[in-house]
Structures are given as structure tokens and as C-alpha cells.
Specification:
The complex is a heterotrimer of chains A (345), B (497) and C (365).
Chain A: H1 2-20, H2 23-41, H3 48-57, H4 59-73, H5 81-98, H6 103-126, H7 132-150, H8 162-168, E1 170-175, E2 181-185, H9 186-204, H10 206-216, H11 218-224, H12 228-254, H13 266-275, H14 287-303, H15 313-337
Antiparallel strand pairs in A: 1-2
Chain B: E1 4-15, E2 18-29, E3 33-37, H1 44-51, E4 62-65, E5 68-70, H2 75-80, E6 83-86, H3 98-109, H4 117-130, H5 146-159, E7 164-168, H6 176-191, E8 195-200, H7 203-209, E9 212-217, E10 220-226, H8 232-240, E11 260-267, E12 271-278, E13 283-287, H9 294-301, E14 309-314, E15 317-319, H10 324-329, E16 332-335, H11 339-343, H12 350-355, H13 371-384, H14 401-413, E17 419-423, H15 431-446, E18 450-455, H16 458-464, E19 467-472, E20 475-481, H17 487-495
Helix pairs in contact in B: 3-4, 3-5, 4-5, 8-17
Chain C: H1 13-33, H2 35-38, H3 41-66, H4 74-95, H5 100-109, H6 125-154, H7 160-179, E1 184-185, H8 189-196, E2 198-199, E3 202-203, H9 204-222, H10 224-234, H11 236-241, H12 246-272, E4 274-275, H13 283-293, H14 305-325, H15 329-364
Antiparallel strand pairs in C: 1-4, 2-3
């Protein structure tokens, strides 16, 4: 009896130990270190207000990143998600200009539109067996170009008022000593909710395990009897859904619809997901890591100006971050493999 | 008197003119441990695939499972009857835990939407208990050794409701202790009433664990026997059954200096203290089963797998061989074990495959590839090595196995290597082509090339080498003049650990 | 039916013949739609002047794809090369000698390069040297960028998608830092000859494009490097077993790609008389499309220059047709995207279908 509990305790410790040495932990430490450095240069950085603001504004990226993360877990890749977000956002707001509704329906509608586009990707990937990168490169143009071609005016500046309410809502708030109101934004809550849901899905549902299995060994997944079609459909529709939801968050924040704004962050999000430890080939990665990756990228993008580095350097830094982090990842793999197989390409 | 779980009669299978199986029979009794033995290329894998429903036998075959005859056995049917095959690649999910890998089919079969970690752990523990195995449930499979991964695969078969577990050469990469453990696991399976069909090579394991054994030779069934009624010599005789036709082998051209010497070459986990000498004009055989370190050793000599310690001496001078280019510069060539993946560019033409190693020699003016010289070169090698192909531009994947191997050989020939290492040169090639490749080898040796041939086909080694080294578990355990050892004796040495 | 000594010729001339046929068909079709506009001299000239920069970029993508990878950074590299060339050109042209401080000042100031600085210079030897210097700078910068890509892919072993994604951002960022986002314009007229002049009625860019096609073609089919690129792309393991230094081949592949991107940068810069971050961003999708359309497998190891050239011609003709039909850029993107999907699907499904038909035939025997 004591033996069993002893064994269980050992396993628990080992799990914690493993987690301490994990990729996510390194990233967290890196973020903390970075924040401290920035704060050292400009002490207005690490304030409560700022932290909650970062959480709020990065929710959009986080929501989309979670979707991309799930796709990558399954061994695929989707670069059409920003196009999906843009189209969902446009269609939804345009419809709401003509008919009245409320924000909840807006979210649902955008989500559904996103899922429909996602299912197109799923069909092409599964039934036509197309390589995911190339297919989503194509559908990105089809969705985005299609929207721009069909819409007479692709810009919307008169967004219904109730849209912005969401971004201003907070779950609870307080006033700091300096008289500033700080609140946990509804956007953040929504994002955290999605993150939690995704985590639970991946951990506790057969579908979620199937995604990991498909990413880990597609052949074995097929042989084991996983319903590959269902997994693929889910994965691409999920990223479509989340992109749609994120797009409404975005509209709520900026109160206008612009066809190109969301497109620019595509590379940032992919970089964030990879930074968070998700393997490009599939089967490895965590929701938490993805969130950390997003925060890292977002912080870099938005803190350079505080350090009086002009914004032109943004891309350079982000590019360096991608190169260095993937480089460490890849080179680390080689070093650990050095003692292993003899035959290697 | 237990019933037959599986009864196969008159199984034949022909692939593109090659007869892999010829009217073979196999019957496996319920609850027994049955082994299927035979040399490489005897048709074992094909038979397994037919049992698994992955391949269909030629017409005239009869397959009965638990008394019920199946006219056409699909993979799904086979699985539903409780037949589980554990292939050499194990089909596990490296990124998932032990518990999950074992229990994964359960929640797929039961179509449950949610998985409970506790349930998975319970299922896994139950399976492990059945075969008296204990593994840490929370480690991911990729962190485990091959031996432990195999245990996971077996447990997984159990949870899938296996009635018959077929294991395809499970001990090939295992050390002595792991083999013992695996055999005890198989015994536990027997106690649980699960039938095991064990495809094996190593005779001492066969004698230790099997109830009955079926022998295949060149695609034909040589009968099924109670293990108690056979001894090793008889079994070997059944497996090889060939008269030794001693070919005329040229001896080493001179008693002179060895072209290659290996001294105390060691690499942790792969091979240890290897010593060998190769003389010009000599064909040296390295006999060893998969997992004995033979391929790793060859790759080390060829520059792909740097050893930890030891020395390689080429033509009297010690050399540091750190890359394939180094090895090639020293006059070495290598015909790899896996022809399709390591030796050929499948979609490229015969011509392209032939010239890949000698590009430097084909450069004409301005450093550009000279078409005329290439044509001449390609033509001469096609004829010299007898490559049967409709044209030099034919994609190499359309050639037969024997011809493909000739292409692989030819691409080294122009470099006129002093040392040629051939790993499993006639695997998957029909008998006639095999002979022809051996003939080529003899010709090369007679011209002064030193040849190292790695093989686990006893007949091949016994008939076509001057000397041979026996390799087991990373060490050279014996050195023989080939003329002084019998084929049976060799097989016994090879297959007994 | 004779094929080259190199792999990747597909099924030889029949395949290229199909492409030729397809091109002629497309050309005829579009001509028929609006012959007056399409076949007009201005239109043909416009196509001839604009096609080469895209074509050279496509060659860059092609070389990398044959090696089994992908290069997402080609646009950024061409922009960065163009910027470096522009700064060199203007600094040297204004002062008359290669003054490094002037170049540095150019980087620091980053203003619209002063028109005041530029004078109408006669086409003389000095100018020629300046132009050659400029071109060398463009190629050198392109080559350096390509080298970085190559090292990341071949030595550090980052998957090409990620490596070139990162460098794309990096190069774009550097370009942004240098120019602060504004264009650099007003180059000396003689320089513009590269992108806007004609040699005996043949547009200069076309000449460069043709030379480029020949060079890449010779490289791929006739040199040792080209052969090894096909080999590594087809089967990197077998390449290693045959004594090929995979990492060396890959580094050189991306180097070539970078140099070609540099050439493209030169062409763009001398045609539109300015260089700016963001030019040509729509070319990336089209480059992938045209290369895949041209028979290059995204897995590597196959593809040939003639087919790609015909594919480029086809695409530009279609694009011109779009122009005349008044299709917006957005609608064109839809078509390109759809074409990409359809062509890749066809490429993928045809062998699968063929195999299934063969299987069924074997089964019933």
C-alpha cells in the first residue's frame, strides 16, 4: 500500500520535474526576463493596466493561434486562416448593417462562415489528398480575392454601435492607487475560455487524442481505425470557427472593417505557434505553449517602441526570433539524435 | 486435442512472374506457440500478409479460421477474427504515452466520445498483468527502448481482443536478456489461451519456446513438426536442403598486403572490438543476423557512422574516414541494404542513376556534363553488367529487382573501387538473378577487387566467399575458411546464440 | 526520343510539347477574345517588359523546389537587393566615386533620393562601370541572403518553410529599417535601360530573362551542381549514399535562388524607376503556381526549365488577358488560387487513379 502511494508520488514528482524542464517553462522564463528588461528601460511597462491590456489585445491573435495550433498538431498547416477571418468579419458586419441583431448572433454567424470555409479546406486536404501548405495558399487567395472581387466596397466604417460594447466590457475591475481603472476584459475571458475548452478537448476527448495520434504516426492512426476524415474535418473547421470568432473580437476593438489588416498577422501567428513548441510535423505541442508564444511575439511587437526602438525594427526582431528559436529547436534535435541512428539524410 | 485456429492450404502467390509462395500449407492450433522458419526470401512475409488479409493468395487456396472457411479474407475480416500482426515497425504512436498506446483501440472500438485517463490506465494495467509485464504508464513511447516498445505493442494486441498474435521477427533487435523476457511474455500469452505465431530466425529461440514449427523453403512448405520430434540438425536440413555446389572461387590475387584492415573498431551500443582483414581479390563474407551490428560496422567503414575508437587501415596506411567522400576517395564503394530507399533514385532514369557517383569524370569543356561521354559510359555499363532495360532513359522503378541491383552495382564500377562492400546484395531477388549477381561479384574479385559481402543467407555465404566472419551481438565470434565449414554447420552457428 | 543526361526531364519532349500546345492554345484564345487590344504593340511590349522580373523570381523558386524545399523569402530578397543597389547607385552616381560615407549617409537619411543629385549623364564608360557595380551589389546582396537561407536549411536543419518564413520577415525588416518605408526613386537614365530599354526591338529585360533561362537551364541539366540538386530533391538518403555532400548542394541551391532574386530586384527597380518595401508581394503565390504548373513537383527531384518557361508565358498571357478584360487584381487572385488547387489536385490524383485502375485490372486477371 505504502509502496503504491510511494510510486505514485514518485511519478508525480517526475511529471513536475519534466514540466519544469519543458519548452513551455523556458518560454515563460524568457517572457518574464524580457518583461523585466523592458521594464528596466522604461518603467511604465510592467503595470497592472498594461498587463491586462496586453492580455486583452492579444486575445485576437491567441484565438486564431489556438486554431492554427490544432491544425499543426494533426500534422497539417493552414495559412488561409487570416483570409477566413477577414471574410467572416466582412460578411457578418455587412449583414448586420442591413438587419439588426446582437453581438452574440454576430459571433455565431462569423463562426459559421469561418467553419464553412474551413470545410472547403478539409475537403481538399482529405478527399483530394492535397499537400496542406499549397492548398491553403490557394484557398487563401480564393477566399480573400473572392471577397474583394465580389464586394463593391470592401471597407466598412460604420459598424453598428453594439459591436464595440464587447471590447469595453470587463468582468471585474478595480482602481489602482494611481487612479487608473484596470479590468479583466471580456475578450480575455473569451479567449481563456476557448483555450480551456481546446485543452479539455485535446486531453479528454477521443477526437482530441485522435488529432495527436494522426500527427504522431498517420499510418498507425489509419491502421488503428481512427476516423481520419472526421479528424481532418474537425481540425480545419475548428480553425475556421476560431478565426471567425477572433475577427468579431477584432471588429469590436477597432470598430471598422478593413480587408488587409488582419492579413498581415498571419506570419506572426505561425511564428507564435512554432515558438510555443508545436512541432511542424505534428503530434507535439500544448495550448499553454501556444499562448506563451503569442504573448512573446505580441510583447516584442508592442514593446520595442517603449524602448525607443523605432517600429521599423519590428520585423527584423520577429524574423530573428523565428530564425533563432526554430534554429535552436532543429539543432537541438540533431544533437540529441547524434548518438542514435547511423543512417540519416 | 485442441482445434486448429488457423488452417491454410495450398497457398500460392505470384508477383510479376516471381513465385513467392508455392502451394504452402500452414495450420496453427488454438493456444499453441507456433513458429514459422525459413531462410531469407522463403516467403514468410508474404504468408503473413495473406493471413492478415493484406494480400490475396492465388486462386485455389483455402483459408479457414476456427473452422470457418473464408473465400476472401480482407484485412477487416482478419482483424475481426482476432488476428493481430505486430510488424517490425510496431505501428505505435511515439508521441503518446504507454497507457494510451495500449488502450487506444478500445476507445475507438467502443466509439466513446470521451477518454478517461483512469480507464486507459486500467486497461493498460490489465493487459500488462496478463503477461506479467510492468511498464511506466506515463512515459511516451519514443522514450522507450525497442524491447519495451515491443511489449507495448503486444499489450495493445491483447486489448484488441487478439486470439492470434503474429510477430514478425520480434527478436532481431533485442539483446539476450530482452529476448529472454520476450519469450517469457509469450509463455504468459500461451497461458492466457492466446495463440502465437512467431516468425523467427534464431533456432535456439525456436527450440526454447515453440510447440510446433513449420518450415518454408523457397516458397514451398516443408512440413509442420512437433518441436520435440526434431533436432537442430534436422531442422537445418529442412531449411536449406541444398547440395552444396562449390563454385570455383578465385583466391586472393597475391599473398600480399591486405587492402583493408580494421583494428579494434568499437562503437558503443553497436559493435565492439572488430578486427578484420581483406586482401585484394578476396571475397570476405560477414555472416550475421539483423541486429548483430553488421550494417553499422559496414557504414562505419564507409564513413557514415563514425566509430568511437579503433583504427581503419587502407592499403597499409591508417586513415580517418569521416565522411562518404573520404571513403570514396580511398577507393571504396557501397551497395546498401535497402536498395529502394538507399541505393536508387526511383523516379529518375537508369542513366541518371548510373552516373551519380562519377559526375566528375563526365565533365567536358566548360565543366559541363558531356552528353557523348555520358552516353558511351552508360551504354558500356549497361552491356557489361547485363542490365535489362528498354532504354537508358527508362525510370529505374520499372526495372525488376535484379536489374535494379545491377544498376546499383554499376554505379560504383566506373570508379573502379579497390574495396566494395555489399550489404545483403541479393535480398528480394529471384534465384536466377541472384546467381548472376554472384557471378559479377566473382568477376570483380578476380580482377583484384576486395569484396566484403554481408548476408544472412547461409547458402550465399557458404558458396560465394573465400573466408567468412561470424558476427553476433556486435562482436566477431568466429572466423572460418569457407571451404572448411559446412553449410549446415554454418547455419547452426549463425542461428544459435 | 532523346532526353538530356539529367533527370527531371519528365517524359521528355512529349511533355514539353504538351506545354507548348497549351501555351499556343491559351494565346490564341485570349487573342480571339480581344485581338485589337491584346495583339497591339503596346500590349505585347508591356507583357514583354513585365514578364521577365516575375520569370526570374519563378526560376529562383523553381531551383529551390527541385531541391525539395521552398523559398518564401524571394520577394523580400529581391526588394532588399534592389534597395542596396539603389543606394549604391545613387551614392556613386552623385559623387562620381565610390564613397562609402555617402552610402552610409544614404542609409541614415533614407530620404527620397534627391532628384537634385541626379544629372542626365551620357552613356559612357564611367556610367557603365557604375551600372556594373550596382548590378554586382544587387547580386551580392541577393547571394548573401540566399547563403543565409542555405545555411539555415542545410546546416542548422530548419525546415525550409520555417527558415524562409523567418528570413522573409528578417529581410523585409532590414529593408524597412533602411528605407523607413519610403521608396527610393529617380535613378540615372542609363541605368533604367536595363528595365526599360530595347536591344534591336527586343526589350532588354527579355534579353536578361532569356539569358537567365539559359543559365538556369544549363545549370540544372548540364552541371554537376544541377544534377546533384535533382538527386537531393528526389532522395536525400540515396544522395548521401552516393557520395553527394547534401549540405553543400543545398547551400548552393539557396545561394542561386538568392542571386536570381537579386536579378529580379534589379529588373523591377529599373523598370518602375523606384524600389520600395512591399513591391511584388502578390508574386509569391503566382511564383509557386507557375512552378507547380510547370511540372515541378513540390516534393523535389523533378522539373525542367522549358516547361517552366512555357508555364510563365502562359500565365503572363492569361494575366494580360485579365488586364484587358478589366478584371480586378482581386479576382485574378481568385483564379490563381483556384488554378493552384486544381493543378495540384490533378497532379496528385492522376497517379492515384492510374494505380487504382491498374490494381483493378490486376485483380480481375
Amino acid at each position: 500500500m505504502s509502496d503504491a502511494t510511494g510510486a505514485r508520488r514518485d511519478t508525480a514528482w517526475r511529471a513536475i520535474g519534466g514540466r519544469l524542464r519543458s519548452h513551455e517553462m523556458y518560454l515563460l522564463l524568457l517572457i518574464v526576463a524580457y518583461c523585466l528588461i523592458v521594464n528596466g528601460i522604461n518603467s511604465s511597462f510592467l503595470t497592472m493596466e498594461n498587463i491586462f491590456d496586453v492580455l486583452k489585445s492579444s486575445s485576437i491573435m491567441s484565438t486564431m493561434a489556438i486554431g492554427v495550433f490544432v491544425v499543426m498538431l494533426s500534422g497539417g498547416m493552414d495559412i488561409s486562416f487570416t483570409a477566413i477571418a477577414t471574410v467572416s468579419m466582412f460578411v457578418t458586419v455587412r449583414l448586420f448593417q442591413l438587419f439588426t441583431g446582437d453581438l452574440l448572433i454576430a459571433f455565431v454567424l462569423a463562426g459559421v462562415v469561418g467553419m464553412v470555409m474551413g470545410s472547403v479546406n478539409a475537403i481538399l486536404v482529405h478527399f483530394c489528398r492535397l499537400p496542406t501548405l499549397i492548398v491553403t495558399l490557394g484557398t487563401s487567395s480564393i477566399f480573400h480575392g473572392g471577397m474583394l472581387a465580389l464586394a463593391r466596397v470592401p471597407y466598412i466604417y460604420t459598424v453598428p454601435r453594439y459591436f464595440s460594447g464587447f471590447s469595453k466590457q470587463t468582468l471585474f475591475s478595480w482602481t489602482t492607487a494611481s487612479g487608473v481603472t484596470v479590468g479583466l476584459s471580456a475578450m480575455t475571458v473569451m479567449m481563456l475560455g476557448i483555450a480551456l475548452l481546446t485543452w479539455a478537448l485535446l486531453r479528454y476527448s477521443a477526437l482530441g487524442r485522435g488529432i495527436y495520434a494522426l500527427g504522431g504516426n498517420p499510418e498507425a492512426a489509419k491502421r488503428a481505425g481512427f476516423n481520419i476524415m472526421r479528424i481532418q474535418f474537425f481540425v480545419y473547421c475548428y480553425v475556421g470557427l476560431l478565426s471567425g470568432l477572433a475577427s468579431i473580437q477584432y471588429v469590436s476593438l477597432v470598430r471598422h472593417v478593413h480587408p488587409f489588416n488582419l492579413m498581415d498577422i498571419m506570419l506572426d501567428i505561425i511564428a507564435a505557434v512554432v515558438l510555443g513548441g508545436t512541432s511542424l510535423t505534428g503530434g507535439r505541442g500544448t495550448v499553454w505553449g501556444t499562448l506563451l508564444g503569442v504573448w512573446m511575439i505580441y510583447l516584442i511587437r508592442n514593446s520595442l517602441v517603449l524602448m525607443r526602438i523605432p517600429s521599423y525594427w519590428d520585423s527584423v526582431v520577429i524574423g530573428l526570433v523565428i530564425v533563432v528559436s526554430t534554429g535552436i529547436n532543429s539543432y537541438g534535435k540533431i544533437l540529441s539524435r547524434a548518438g542514435g541512428k547511423a543512417i540519416d539524410a | 486435442m485442441s482445434e486448429d485456429f488457423l488452417c491454410l492450404r495450398n497457398i500460392s502467390k505470384t508477383f510479376a512472374g516471381v513465385r513467392a509462395l508455392s502451394r504452402a500449407d500452414l495450420s496453427v492450433k488454438e493456444g499453441e506457440v507456433h513458429t514459422l522458419v525459413g531462410e531469407n526470401g522463403c516467403g514468410k512475409s508474404t504468408l503473413i500478409k495473406i493471413i492478415a488479409g493484406v494480400l490475396q493468395p492465388d486462386p485455389g487456396a483455402s483459408i479457414a479460421i476456427r473452422g470457418k472457411v473464408w473465400k476472401r479474407l480482407s484485412a477487416f475480416d482478419s482483424l475481426s477474427q482476432g488476428i493481430q500482426v505486430i510488424y517490425q515497425d510496431l505501428s505505435l504512436f511515439p508521441n503518446l504515452t504507454v497507457a494510451e498506446n495500449i488502450s487506444v483501440s478500445q476507445y475507438i472500438q467502443e466509439k466513446k466520445p470521451f477518454v478517461s485517463r483512469r480507464e486507459m490506465a486500467d486497461i493498460a494495467r490489465e493487459a500488462m498483468r496478463m503477461i506479467s509485464v510492468s511498464l511506466d504508464l506515463s512515459t511516451t513511447v519514443q522514450e522507450l527502448s525497442i524491447a519495451k516498445q515491443q511489449l507495448v505493442a503486444i499489450c495493445r494486441s491483447i486489448t484488441r481482443g487478439a486470439r492470434l498474435i503474429i510477430m514478425d521477427e520480434p527478436t532481431s533487435s533485442l539483446g539476450r536478456r530482452d529476448v529472454e523476457y520476450l519469450l517469457s511474455v509469450i509463455r504468459s500469452l500461451r497461458e492466457e489461451g492466446i495463440t502465437t505465431l512467431f516468425v523467427g530466425h534464431k533456432l535456439n529461440e525456436v527450440f526454447e519456446i515453440a510447440d510446433r514449427v513449420t518450415v518454408l523453403r523457397d516458397g514451398r512448405g516443408m512440413g509442420t513438426y512437433e518441436i520435440s520430434q526434431l533436432n537442430a540438425a534436422e531442422l537445418i536440413q529442412l531449411m536449406t536442403g541444398r547440395q552444396i555446389a562449390r563454385a570455383q572461387l578465385p583466391g586472393p590475387r597475391s599473398e600480399g598486403a591486405p587492402i583493408l584492415e580494421v583494428k579494434e573498431l568499437t562503437k558503443k551500443g553497436q559493435f565492439q572490438g572488430i578486427n578484420l582483414t581483406l586482401r585484394p581479390g578476396e571475397i570476405l563474407g560477414i555472416a550475421g543476423l539483423r541486429g548483430s551490428g553488421r550494417t553499422e560496422l559496414a557504414l562505419s567503414i564507409f564513413g557514415m557512422n563514425r566509430a568511437d575508437s579503433g583504427e581503419i587501415v587502407v592499403a597499409g596506411t591508417p586513415r580517418r574516414i569521416r565522411s562518404v567522400q573520404d571513403a570514396m576517395a580511398l577507393g571504396m564503394g557501397y551497395v546498401p541494404e535497402e536498395r529502394l530507399v538507399q541505393g536508387l533514385f526511383m523516379d529518375h532514369s537508369v542513366r541518371s542513376n548510373l552516373i551519380v557517383t562519377v559526375l566528375d569524370k563526365l565533365l567536358g569543356r566548360l565543366g559541363l556534363l558531356d552528353d557523348r561521354r555520358t552516353d558511351g559510359f552508360v551504354r558500356s555499363w549497361i552491356s557489361e553488367l547485363g542490365i535489362k532495360t528498354p532504354s537508358a532513359d527508362c525510370p529505374v522503378k520499372q526495372l525488376s529487382g535484379g536489374n535494379q541491383q545491377r544498376v546499383v552495382l554499376s554505379k560504383w564500377m566506373e570508379r573502379a573501387p579497390r574495396i566494395l562492400i555489399m550489404d545483403g546484395p541479393t535480398v528480394g531477388i529471384d534465384v536466377k538473378a541472384k546467381e548472376e549477381i554472384h557471378e559479377i561479384m566473382r568477376t570483380l574479385a578476380s580482377k583484384g577487387m576486395g569484396v566484403i559481402m554481408i548476408s544472412d543467407e547461409v547458402a550465399e555465404i557458404a558458396q560465394h566467399t573465400n573466408r567468412l566472419l561470424l558476427m553476433k551481438s556486435g562482436r566477431i565470434v568466429g572466423e572460418y575458411e569457407t571451404s572448411r565449414i559446412t553449410e549446415d554447420g554454418l547455419l547452426k552457428e549463425l542461428l544459435y546464440t | 526520343m532523346r532526353e538530356g543526361a539529367a533527370p527531371g526531364r519528365g517524359t521528355g519532349f512529349t511533355r514539353t510539347g504538351t506545354y507548348l500546345l497549351a501555351f499556343l492554345l491559351v494565346f490564341t484564345l485570349i487573342s480571339l477574345l480581344n485581338p485589337k487590344q491584346f495583339l497591339s504593340l503596346t500590349n505585347i511590349q508591356q507583357m514583354a517588359f513585365q514578364l521577365p522580373e516575375f520569370g526570374v523570381l519563378a526560376f529562383a523558386m523553381m531551383v529551390v523546389m527541385v531541391s525539395g524545399g521552398i523559398d518564401l523569402s524571394i520577394i523580400s530578397v529581391s526588394t532588399l537587393s534592389g534597395i542596396a543597389a539603389a543606394i549604391t547607385l545613387l551614392s556613386v552616381a552623385s559623387s562620381g566615386n565610390l564613397d562609402l560615407s555617402l552610402i552610409l549617409k544614404g542609409i541614415m537619411a533614407g530620404e527620397d533620393s534627391a532628384t537634385a543629385v541626379v544629372q542626365q549623364m551620357p552613356f559612357d564608360l564611367r556610367m557603365l562601370l557604375i551600372i556594373l557595380l550596382t548590378a554586382s551589389v544587387a547580386l551580392a546582396v541577393g547571394g548573401l541572403c540566399g547563403l543565409l537561407n542555405g545555411i539555415l536549411v542545410a546546416v542548422v536543419r530548419i525546415p525550409p518553410i520555417l527558415a524562409t518564413l523567418g528570413t522573409m520577415k528578417l529581410f523585409e525588416g532590414i529593408a524597412f529599417v533602411v528605407t523607413k518605408g519610403s521608396p527610393i526613386t529617380s535613378f540615372p537614365k542609363p541605368f533604367l535601360f536595363i528595365g526599360s530599354g530595347s536591344l534591336l526591338y527586343v526589350p532588354m529585360p527579355m534579353v536578361i530573362f532569356a539569358i537567365g533561362a539559359v543559365c538556369v537551364g544549363v545549370l540544372l541539366q548540364k552541371t554537376r551542381l544541377g544534377f546533384t540538386i535533382y538527386a537531393v530533391g528526389m532522395n536525400a538518403v540515396a544522395a548521401r549514399f552516393s557520395g553527394i555532400r547534401n549540405w553543400g548542394v543545398l547551400v548552393r541551391t539557396y545561394l542561386v535562388s538568392g542571386i536570381l532574386a537579386g536579378v529580379a530586384g534589379l529588373l523591377i527597380m529599373s523598370r518602375v524607376d523606384s524600389v520600395k518595401v512591399g513591391y511584388g508581394s502578390s508574386y509569391l503565390l503566382q511564383a509557386v503556381l507557375v512552378v507547380i504548373l510547370g511540372g515541378v513537383s513540390y516534393l523535389g527531384g523533378k522539373g525542367n526549365i522549358l516547361d517552366v518557361v512555357l508555364s510563365i508565358l502562359m500565365l503572363r498571357v492569361i494575366s494580360s488577358g485579365f488586364n484587358i478584360a478589366g478584371l480586378t487584381e482581386y479576382f485574378r487572385n481568385v483564379i490563381w488560387g483556384s488554378l493552384l488547387v486544381v493543378v495540384t489536385a490533378a497532379n496528385n490524383l492522376v497517379p492515384v487513379l492510374a494505380a487504382r485502375i491498374a490494381e483493378r485490372r490486376a485483380d480481375t486477371r
